[in-house]
UniProtKB/TrEMBL annotation:
Protein name, entry field: Amino acid ABC transporter ATP-binding protein
Keyword Phosphoprotein: no
A family per Pfam: ABC_tran
UniProt subcellular location: Cell membrane
Species: Streptosporangium vulgare
Phylogenetic lineage: Bacteria, Bacillati, Actinomycetota, Actinomycetes, Streptosporangiales
Length: 254
């Protein structure tokens, strides 16, 4: 079996009395694309947020590239890492949000160069060359000097993807990257994500786009009520789901 790039073991997470993750085990091999499907409120975003320590787990563990995220182990206890270590780990993990979350006061190019400059302290000429390559890759070379508010939602999301790639992350997490887009803009964003999948980037993608899952995923995971109900190849989960809850969900989104 190839090495795990992302591994969650028995992850539990509650908000007050609401148990949102109820023992999640997930393993994503290097270079693989995992698509997570599931109804609203099932814990998909929370799961992604534990992977880069935007949420702390209550128990269980998360590791990326063989390193515990946000914690250090001592015997069977987990101690939280200092903030600067958590920030260092986050540079290994790209995150693309539903609502783009671009810096509104920075140009497209500056959005892409900000993190490698400030978090990684890479030289300006190197980072500028990187931004040029990445904007070309997402088809936005001509928008380098525009501000986000001048762009369509699809263009903004492609900038967000270029920005995530700028840190040369080990894994990229996508949280419903096309849910906020007008239908005619969904395709251009999914095409960029497909291109990344083809280049061997490790990705976890939360989406309701079943066609995308079928085409791009190595593994499809179905989540409900804080648990992984079913996992398998797209053919297994989408065409021959074993669980009633998966069938019910698919009958609503397909
Ligand atoms: P999904 O992404 O599958 O829609 P979420 O992970 O966003 O689900 O949320 C799962 C549940 O946890 C929901 O009931 C949501 O309201 C709740 N939740 C998420 N984040 C918080 C938070 N920071 N505080 C309290 N409840 C939260
Ligand atoms: Mg969500």
């Amino acid at each position: 079996m190839s090495a795990a790039m992302v591994e969650l073991r028995s992850v539990h997470k509650s908000f007050g009395s609401l148990e949102v993750l109820r023992g999640v085990d997930l393993r994503v091999a290097a270079g693989e694309v995992t698509v997570i499907l599931g109804p609203s409120g099932s814990g998909k975003s929370t799961l992604l947020r534990t992977v880069n320590h935007l949420e702390k787990v209550d128990s269980g563990s998360v590791s990326v590239d063989g390193e515990l995220v946000g914690y250090r182990r001592s015997g069977d206890k987990l101690y939280e890492l200092p903030e600067r270590e958590i920030l260092r780990q986050r540079t290994k993990i790209g995150f693309v949000f539903q609502n783009f979350n671009l810096f509104p006061h920075l140009t497209v190019r500056q959005n892409v160069t900000e993190a490698p400059r400030s978090a990684q302290r890479r030289p300006k000429t190197e980072v500028d060359a990187l931004a040029t390559r990445l904007l070309e890759r997402v088809g936005l070379s001509d928008k380098a000097h525009s501000y986000p508010r001048k762009l369509s939602g699809g263009q903004q999301q492609r900038v967000a993807i270029a920005r995530a790639l700028a840190l040369e992350p080990k894994v990229i997490l996508f949280d419903e990257p096309t849910s906020a887009l007008d239908p005619e803009l969904v395709g251009e964003v999914l095409d960029v994500v497909k291109g990344l999948a083809g280049s061997g980037t490790t990705m976890i993608v939360v989406t309701h786009e079943v066609g995308f899952a079928r085409e791009v995923a190595d593994t499809v995971v179905f989540m409900d009520e804080g648990r992984i109900v079913e996992r398998g190849t797209p053919a297994e989960v989408l065409d021959a789901p074993r669980h009633e809850r998966t069938r019910l969900f698919l009958s609503k989104v397909l």
